[in-house]
Amino acid sequence: MDWGEAVGWMILPIKRYFHFGGRSRRKEYWMYFLFTIILGIIAGIIDVLLGFGSAATYAEPGRIGASATSSGPISGLVSLGLIIPSISVAFRRLHDTDRSAWWLLLIFIPILGWIALLVFYCQEGTRGPNRFGQDPKGANLTEVFG
């Protein structure tokens, strides 16, 4: 996969912002996940550089460092803008494993629910069509990115 294709997979959920139906491949989900992490780090750095958000600094004998203790407005806006596509790609990823989006409620069960969702997100989707649509692995890339 070249850089252009990787970026295409990263932003595909943004293009499908309010699309809660259908199916999403593991590649789409995990590339978007990586995109949100990168964007969050960049937003956090911008917040700190602009003096927003607080960063705790500490100095102890033999140790000097800093850690972010809260996010600033840029990070908050980025997070707010990514809520809907994050939920929609999670719905579609669950659909690809032939599960209802109701399974996303497992997120409210600490640790065990998170582990279950992680397993679901890592599982290969059902081969061929399922009740949520056609197999996205069988789709032509121009259909996906077009």
From TrEMBL:
Keywords of the record: Membrane, Transmembrane, Transmembrane helix
InterPro entries: DUF805
Cellular component GO terms held in the UniProt record: plasma membrane
Pfam families per the UniProt record, alphabetical: DUF805
Organism of this sequence: Sphingomonas gellani
Keyword Transmembrane helix attached: yes
Official protein name in the record: Uncharacterized membrane protein YhaH, DUF805 family
Transmembrane segments: 29-52, 72-91, 103-121
Domain of life, per lineage: Bacteria
Segment forming the signal sequence: none
